[in-house]
TrEMBL record:
Stretches assigned to the Citrate transporter-like domain: 27-479
Organism: Vigna unguiculata (Cowpea)
Name the record gives this protein: Monoamine oxidase
Keywords: Cell membrane, Membrane, Transmembrane, Transmembrane helix, Transport
InterPro entries with a match to the protein in the record: Cit_transptr-like_dom
Length: 533
């Protein structure tokens, strides 16, 4: 493709440069409007500068990608309400055998959950819980936070719904969910093992020197985790949120009590009235959040005082039979509803594996969950990150405008002879180009800029090489996010969540991540490329 007229090239570069600055630095001092508004500003300038026409701008918006993104976010909201992420968190503390076992467990659970529920969601719901486990066992948080963020990125590469760039690749390449999974899963497994090995080597001595804690400590952390409720869909995809939006979302996190918790509160209140104790009694949610070691002048609670068994016995003796029956019905309705949510989610995954349309499958699953809930869906739909959807719309238009200047095609014409995927040197050069561009321009714009060109070049060799090129693009653009703290939304989420964790603030510095990110990114990318066929 020849270069456009000079005026079109200059104006197109100006519009894209503004978009790039605001996408990479959303709180830049001279224009702190955030990524979402920045993408819309870039799109508007492309039309105002006549780089593309209004009709062409509308045509560039990819509705299947937006539909798939919307559907997966709604499903994540209902999975959060069904306590799926609470159970995932409990797996981390269940029969843990020490610091190294915990590190490996975080790598595996983070990778698997990211492949199924997106990497950003996994990081939102697991960061604070990991901090609590680390503090409970006097462990350094850094290796565990690095394991969470890096493994979330690696795991998300395995499926089209793992991260936004994979959504784009799956829709544009028309590779089915099953073929996508089969093509990258071996690389993902090898990458998780390599990443865990690097972490163990770098932090072996640090993980070996710690104070052993009693097993009851892990149980205490799990109980504390139960009292926290997260909104993964609202917090997910930090790439579309500026710092002000991030703060407002964190403040909007609410605590919801389960029926068992309500009964427990009621039993404690009734017992205090019988014994003549002041009505200023702690409810069970506050009891579970008290320190277990008696610090700050607060006596530690014994296991018997807070155990579900003792509370259940109090309920049985003090609650009226009719109330007990109603609570039983409510409890089983809740269990039935949660089971249906899990069944619908599994059905969605099965449909995706069977090759059904990914966008409509996700939307159908989302609507099935809304109907199953049988109540006003507004509270759940408000948790969807609409700013992310708007960010994608603006980005589609801005990137298409840059493509019409002819600059990306001219640059690719220079690189294309050296980037053939049918030889090892070509794969290596292509991976380096993707890694550099993903850290300079972010991974989703990189995929939009390179995807069609890389696929067309590989298609000239063979159909199999075309599929391989798309998978290499998915793998390299995703793993490149582990290079630095700013390379991935998941990294930023872990960092921000750790800083803002109540009573457990911790700062994951840029350099502590960078010194791990360089070897991890290079080694994991190289190992994974050998498994992609």
């Amino acid at each position: 493709m020849a270069l456009a007229p000079v005026s079109k090239v200059v104006f197109g570069l100006i519009a894209f440069a503004i978009f790039w600055v605001l996408a990479v630095f959303p709180a830049v001092p001279f224009l702190p409007i955030g990524r979402t508004a920045g993408s819309l500003l870039g799109a508007m300038l492309m039309v105002l500068f006549q780089v593309i026409t209004p009709d062409e701008a509308y045509a560039t918006i990819d509705l299947p990608i937006l539909g798939l993104l919307f559907g997966t976010m709604v499903v994540s909201v209902y999975l959060e309400r069904a306590d799926m992420f609470k159970y995932i968190g409990k797996l981390l503390a269940w029969k843990s055998r020490g610091a190294k076992d915990l590190l490996c467990r975080i790598c595996v659970i983070s990778a698997v959950s990211s492949a199924l529920f997106t990497n950003d969601t996994s990081c939102v719901v697991l960061t604070e819980f990991i901090l609590k486990i680390a503090r409970q066992h006097n462990l350094p948080p850094t290796p565990f936070l690095l394991a969470l963020a890096s493994s979330a990125n690696i795991g998300s590469s395995a499926t089209p719904i793992g991260n936004p760039q994979n959504l784009v690749i799956a829709v544009q390449s028309k590779i089915s969910f099953g073929n996508f999974l089969i093509g990258i899963l071996p690389a993902m497994v090898a990458g998780v093992v390599a990443n865990a090995t690097i972490l163990l080597i770098m932090y072996w001595k640090l993980l070996s020197v710690h104070k052993d804690e009693e097993d009851s400590g892990a149980e205490a952390v799990v109980e504390e985790y139960d009292s926290h409720r997260f909104s993964p869909a609202t917090m997910s995809h930090f790439s579309s949120l500026n710092s002000q939006e991030w703060n407002s979302h964190l403040e909007a996190i609410s605590v919801q009590n389960s029926p068992q918790q309500i009964l427990r509160n009621r039993s404690i209140a009734t017992a205090s009235e019988i014994n003549g104790v002041s009505s200023n009694t702690f409810d069970s949610a506050r009891i579970s959040s008290l320190p277990r070691d008696g610090t700050n002048g607060v006596p530690s609670l014994t296991k018997e005082e807070t155990s579900p068994t003792s509370s259940a016995a109090t309920v049985d003796t003090l609650i009226h039979p009719s109330e007990r029956k109603n609570s039983f019905i409510i409890r089983w309705k809740r269990v039935l509803w949660k089971s249906c949510v899990y069944i619908i989610t599994v059905g969605m995954l099965v449909a995706l594996l069977l090759g059904l349309n990914m966008s409509w499958t996700a939307i159908t699953a989302a609507l099935a969950l809304i109907v199953l809930d049988f109540k006003d869906a507004r509270p759940c739909l408000e948790k969807v990150s609409y700013s992310l959807l708007i960010f994608f719309c603006g980005m589609f238009i801005t990137v298409d405008g840059l493509n019409k200047t002819g600059i990306p095609s001219a640059l690719w014409d220079i690189m294309e002879p050296y980037s053939h995927v049918d030889r090892a040197s070509g794969v290596a050069i292509l991976a380096v180009v993707i890694l550099v561009l993903s850290n300079l321009a972010s991974n989703v714009p990189t995929v939009l800029l390179l995807g069609g060109r890389v696929a067309a070049s590989a298609a000239a060799i063979s159909k199999a090489d075309e599929k391989k090129a798309w998978l290499i693009l998915a793998w390299a653009s995703t793993i490149s996010g582990n290079l630095s703290l700013l390379g991935s939304a998941a990294n930023l989420i872990v960092c921000e969540q750790a800083i803002r964790a109540p009573n457990l603030p911790y700062t994951l510095t840029f350099w502590s991540h960078f010194k791990f990110g360089i070897p991890s990114t290079i080694i994991v990318t190289a190992i994974g490329l050998t498994f992609i066929r």
